[in-house]
Design a protein that fits this description.
8 helices
């Protein structure tokens, strides 16, 4: 699509409005391609990684609160309410990598939640720290759930494409969880 819009810009007689539209589309597609490249590089690096490089103790519940606050523009636009039931839990982990997991999962919850709905977040300890994030979107079939962690798989291709998904976020999150000795379900 970048090449197509660039060729359209070269056509004689296009209006200033058309030029602005084509330039905007080229910028959007360039950003999407850049995000995809960064995600692929990150996933490739994680595939080679066998241990966590940067461990520190931090409050897990506070990390989740910060992610929710940073994503406020997206959820307030959809009038989403939050139901938080988070125990104060300190963990020792790679804070930056784990933050990436929460951003991805909470963005997905926001993206696929209907307007005016709730998203619930629970943090508690049963041996290990457990985080549950539940939205009230359309859900997934058993086949979609079975394939959700496959690279490039998108359960709802039309909605994911419109929302900018490449089908790598959950793959990346699962790898990060595994590096932490955890699991993502």
């Amino acid at each position: 699509s970048i090449r197509g819009f660039a060729k359209l810009l070269q056509m004689p007689g296009i209006t200033e409005e058309q030029k602005a539209e084509y330039i905007s589309m080229i910028a959007q597609e360039s950003d999407r391609l850049s995000r995809l490249s960064e995600t692929l590089l990150r996933l490739s690096a994680l595939e080679q990684q066998t241990a966590l490089a940067s461990l520190a103790a931090f409050p897990l519940d506070e990390q989740l609160r910060q992610v929710i606050l940073r994503l406020e523009p997206a959820w307030s636009q959809k009038d989403i309410a939050w139901q938080l039931d988070m125990d104060e839990i300190t963990i020792t982990s790679d804070q930056e990598l784990l933050n990436q997991v929460w951003v991805n999962i909470i963005q997905n919850a926001i993206k696929f939640s209907p307007e005016g709905s709730d998203i619930e977040v629970r943090v508690f300890r049963e041996g290990n720290a457990i985080v549950e994030i539940q939205d009230h979107g359309c859900g997934m079939t058993k086949e979609q759930i079975d394939r959700a962690f496959e690279p490039f798989y998108r359960a709802d291709k039309s909605r994911a494409r419109a929302a900018g998904g490449a089908g790598l976020g959950l793959t990346l999150c699962r790898k990060i969880a595994q590096l932490h000795g955890g699991e993502l379900t």
